[in-house]
């Protein structure tokens, strides 16, 4: 039976799982969460771990809820939306997409038009409630819809509204993909520490706690990153030797180019999956 307060997840993969975990830990009743997922082991795990309603049919899950979370890959989004269009036209749900690159206009068109669509970009720390999500609302979304989308995503961490949809690809490249950049840095630091002779377990412990400690200083001290860096960097000391090496190697330009390429890939995903 359809309930306006229920949520349907179309696709029950990694991000859906993170968001579902967040919703349940914030008090959403498992019975109010419906998930459609074609892979039976993923379905079974969601039912076992969270007690949510699971099934293989997207329309069945969607028919049960006033809020749809489209959590499939960009490559299958068009087919998924077109199959749900008749239901979208009769039920007029609030539709939240988490897909990289897929625009609100595309979702609108595939769902038959006139549907309230919120395009969002969460990230994987959502699993711990420590994520951040950029949100863009189409014109059809009213204040209550914006509030509902923000509450949904706030179970995964912080939320940031983006007024210009063209900027959503930059959000994807910054915070959506961003955790991977930090993981890459962790890999590289660990490898380097081992190369300097540290045992692997010590290298990992030192690197992980350094990243955690630095992230806490960034978020809790109120100081800008450049000032925090300055305080670690004694003149003529070890940090200066390392930072000068990063700068000489074009570290900032490399980061800028990486984020520019990720932004461009977001635009390409939109065109490739139209
Ligand atoms: N992984 C990440 O860090 C982030 C991913 N995203 C976006 O989230 C979306 C999902 O990504 P992940 O969870 O990483 O991928 P995933 O592959 O883990 O999840 C997608 C799920 O959709 C299911 N699926 C495939 N075809 C389906 C269909 N026709 N109907 C219903 N379900 C279907 C798959 O079996 C899979 O379990 C993507 O659009 C991605 O761009 C957004 C933010 C961050
Ligand atoms: O790599 C991707 O396309 C997705 C979107 C942001 C993070 N993962």
TrEMBL record:
Q: Which GO terms describe its molecular function?
A: pyrroline-5-carboxylate reductase activity
Keywords of the record, alphabetical order, are: Amino-acid biosynthesis, Cytoplasm, NADP, Oxidoreductase, Proline biosynthesis
The cross-references to SUPFAM superfamilies, in alphabetical order and at most eight, read: 6-phosphogluconate dehydrogenase C-terminal domain-like (SSF48179), NAD(P)-binding Rossmann-fold domains (SSF51735)
Q: Which part of the chain is the Pyrroline-5-carboxylate reductase dimerisation domain? A: 165-269
EC number assigned by the record:
1.5.1.2
One Pfam entry for this protein is: F420_oxidored
Q: In which pathway does it act?
A: Amino-acid biosynthesis; L-proline biosynthesis; L-proline from L-glutamate 5-semialdehyde: step 1/1
Pyrroline-5-carboxylate reductase catalytic N-terminal domain location: 7-101
Q: What is this protein called?
A: Pyrroline-5-carboxylate reductase
Domain of life from the UniProt record: Bacteria
Recorded catalytic reaction(s): these are:
L-proline + NAD(+) = (S)-1-pyrroline-5-carboxylate + NADH + 2 H(+); L-proline + NADP(+) = (S)-1-pyrroline-5-carboxylate + NADPH + 2 H(+)
Q: What does this protein do?
A: Catalyzes the reduction of 1-pyrroline-5-carboxylate (PCA) to L-proline.
Q: Which family does it belong to?
A: Belongs to the pyrroline-5-carboxylate reductase family.
Q: Which organism is it from?
A: Lysobacter brunescens
Q: Where in the cell is it found?
A: Cytoplasm
């Amino acid at each position: 039976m359809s309930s306006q307060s229920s949520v349907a997840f179309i696709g029950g993969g990694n991000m859906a799982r993170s968001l579902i975990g967040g919703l349940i830990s914030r008090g959403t009743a498992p019975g109010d969460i419906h998930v459609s997922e074609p892979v039976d082991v993923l379905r079974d795990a969601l039912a076992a771990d969270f007690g949510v309603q699971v099934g293989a049919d997207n329309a069945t899950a969607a028919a049960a809820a006033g809020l749809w979370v489209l959590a499939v890959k960009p490559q299958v989004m068009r087919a998924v939306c077109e199959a749900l269009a008749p239901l979208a036209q009769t039920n007029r749900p609030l539709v939240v997409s988490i897909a990289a690159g897929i625009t609100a206009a595309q979702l609108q068109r595939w769902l038959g038009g006139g549907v309230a669509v919120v395009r969002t970009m969460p990230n994987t720390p959502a699993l711990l409630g420590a994520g951040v999500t950029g949100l863009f609302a189409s014109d059809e979304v009213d204040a209550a819809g914006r509030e509902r989308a923000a509450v949904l995503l706030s179970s995964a961490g912080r939320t940031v509204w983006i007024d210009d949809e063209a900027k959503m690809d930059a959000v994807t490249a910054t915070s959506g993909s961003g955790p991977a950049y930090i993981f890459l840095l962790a890999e590289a630091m660990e490898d380097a520490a081992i190369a300097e002779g540290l045992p692997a377990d010590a290298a990992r412990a030192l690197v992980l706690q350094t990243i955690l400690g630095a992230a806490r200083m960034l978020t809790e001290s109120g100081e800008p990153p450049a000032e925090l860096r300055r305080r670690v960097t004694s003149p003529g000391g070890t940090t200066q030797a390392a930072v000068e090496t990063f700068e000489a190697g074009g570290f900032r330009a490399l980061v800028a180019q990486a984020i520019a390429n990720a932004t461009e890939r977001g635009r390409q995903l939109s065109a490739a999956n139209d």
